[in-house]
Amino acid sequence: MSKLSAIRGMNDLLPEQTALWQKVETTARQILQSYGYREIRFPIVEYTELFKRSIGDVTDIVEKEMYTFEDRNGESLTLRPEGTACCVRAGEQHGLFYNQTQRLWYTGPMFRYEKPQKGRYRQFHQLGVESFGFATVDMDAEMIALSARLWKALGIDHQVELQLNTLGDKTSRLRYVEALNEFLQPIKDQLDYDSQQRLDKNPLRILDSKDANTQALLKAAPRLHDYLDEESTRDFSELCARLDALGISYTINQNLVRGLDYYNKTVFEWVTEQLGAQGTICAGGRYDGLVEQLGGRSTPAVGFALGLERLVLMLEHWTEMAQQSQAPLAYAMAQKPEFSPELAAIIERLRDALPEKNLLMHCGGGSIKSQMKKADKSGAAMAIILGEQEVQDNTVAIKFLREQRDQVVLAQAELIKFLQENG
User: Fold this and answer.
1) Which of 22, 145, 147, 381 has the highest count of CB atoms within 10 angstroms of its CB?
2) Which of 84-88, 101-105, 175-179, 256-260 has the lowest mean pLDDT?
3) Measured torsion, CA atoms of residues 44, 50, 56, 60, in degrees rounded to the nearest 10
4) How many CB atoms lie within 10 A of CB 122?
């Protein structure tokens, strides 16, 4: 019988890893709540048509990367490749947008069939932040400020750089695409293979090519900002002024576009040199036409998504700290098996009184020596020991495992206060 294994590009997260993930998720959740964002959850599977209408039929995601299948009723379903379209669908279905503003966030797995590599997997996890009903650039600035605050809280603000651009409105972007196409067609054979494929489908994506030769050719290409409409130019200038006032540094990158068709005006990415080729850890922008494109009323919107795998890779130095934060405060053990029921009752009372404390009860029997080894391996700060003398005296012994302190004996009634003061 062959050995069981996970599907290629879909990875397990073991207990030694999840402590770090929880640390990242908790930090992000606290910041999002402080900005007034509320969590929304939606299914992993959606009708395929949702992504074809939102992402675009000619994108790599729809053409090559989606996990699409027919259910027993013959309906075409897709494992979600991104979260924005799902969020719009859920908000429109449940009436969250009309004459309202919304600040929403979500997290969970996304799926794309592509070659697995470091920081890029077939099942990956994103945290997405979306706002609806805000047409002015103060919301664009808030999104960027929120993400900047997250990097600072995680201690990686010195390792990331903000790249910023504006795509203009639909009309100005079409004018630019026409000019770009006229420039690129005569040199099509000199472009890299992927850019040649994009030229007839989505020329704007060529600006984002990672091929050095293509980027060299693009230096002589028309500049996007020369084709911007007046409103987009004004909004972008205001956004830059707001970021300057907030002390958030940025680089204007006119070749920065987004891989999805629904973006307009502001687009941004946070990039790092710590992850090699997969240097983007967070990306987003404004998508004012998407709600209407999916059948709703015209609704301005802006958001971003960050890749949790890539973020965790940058935070591997946090691993030890995250694991320490998950270690139990106390490991409880009984000297004899017949003392175990009484010890369990003591620990349950402690859990009632101290629900925020991590208390680990030994199970499985064994000598006091073997139990002490397991207590030490657990990372617990102290051991709670119930021996024969303690049973007679209604006390417990406390042995410190991480500090050079003398063992103490306490009345059981004093244990709650002791753990509060020493936890």
Assistant:
1) 147
2) 256-260
3) 30
4) 19
